[in-house]
Design the sequence.
């Protein structure tokens, strides 16, 4: 089971390297790829939040997403601390 | 659209306006060098110049960043990184004032990367890899499967493999040795990233 998970994660990493190389060949700047990724994430999260809070304004949606981002960064830091300082 | 590009442009324009020496490090630096992944913050190290830092607060506040003067004072006094949120987006600017020798060095040896008409001072590939190793720290207690859970480790593995032939290995090894992190470094650079043989 552990070995499977290791192989799955390793293959994912290899695919990421291939994807990076492909973007380079296509002359796509990695920051443009990041911009698209963030835009996609924001749009998807907005759809989810609008379903949850149909009457929420754009301002409220933005501040909710900002709070979520903040919480996520705290969680990530906490995970690092529990794993020997990573 | 262009949430990140707009945010980055606003940040770099403020730093250029101040004529303050800065360098982009961390995740965005790794992305600029070719690691494709997401992030919602920009890590920047800036020079310690009291006049410019005072002015930086004014410019950030005027440009809709959620910043307190106390945060800048705190970064200056304690040497920690401070998080400044953008009022217009979900992005965040993590700012550190250069104090330690390593921070001064990365600032002085920055390379210029061009993007969207901007000239962005970015950490060199060696400094990015070195920074990742410092951040990763000791990994003795982690098995290979768990290693791959961490963004910083994936960043290191992908960039190291991408730039292997261009890196100044002697410099990198010596810097890491000085921090007693050679075990981490050697384990990561030996990490097997071969493609599986396809079944016929």
Sequence:
């Amino acid at each position: 089971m552990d070995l499977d998970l290791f192989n799955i994660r390793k293959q994912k990493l290899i695919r990421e390297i291939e994807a990076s190389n492909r973007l380079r060949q296509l002359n796509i700047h990695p920051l443009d790829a990041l911009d698209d990724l963030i835009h996609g994430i924001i749009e998807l999260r907005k759809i989810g939040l609008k379903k949850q809070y149909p009457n929420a304004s754009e301002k409220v949606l933005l501040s909710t997403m900002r709070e979520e981002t903040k919480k996520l960064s705290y969680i990530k830091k906490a995970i690092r601390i529990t794993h020997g300082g990573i | 659209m262009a949430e990140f590009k707009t945010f980055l442009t606003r940040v770099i324009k403020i730093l250029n306006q101040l004529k303050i020496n800065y360098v982009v490090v961390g995740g965005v630096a790794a992305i600029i060098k070719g690691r494709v992944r997401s992030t919602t913050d920009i890590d920047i190290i800036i020079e310690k110049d009291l006049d410019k830092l005072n002015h930086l607060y004014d410019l950030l506040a005027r440009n809709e960043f959620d910043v307190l003067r106390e945060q800048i004072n705190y970064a200056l006094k304690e040497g920690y990184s401070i998080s400044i949120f953008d009022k217009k987006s979900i992005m965040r600017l993590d700012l550190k004032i250069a104090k330690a020798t390593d921070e001064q060095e990365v600032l002085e040896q920055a390379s210029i990367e061009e993007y969207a008409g901007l000239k962005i001072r970015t950490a060199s590939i060696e400094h990015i890899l070195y920074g990742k190793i410092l951040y990763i720290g000791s990994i003795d207690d982690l098995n290979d499967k768990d290693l791959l859970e961490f963004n910083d480790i994936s960043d290191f593995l992908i960039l190291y493999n991408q730039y292997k032939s261009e890196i100044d290995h002697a410099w990198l090894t010596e810097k890491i040795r000085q921090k007693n992190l050679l075990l981490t470094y050697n384990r990561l650079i030996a990490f097997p990233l071969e493609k599986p043989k396809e079944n016929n």
Q: What stands out?
A: Residues 81-86 of chain A have pLDDT under 50 and may be disordered. The first helix of chain A runs from residue 2 to 25. The CA atoms of residues 8 and 30 of chain A lie 24 Å apart. The radius of gyration of chain A is 18 Å.
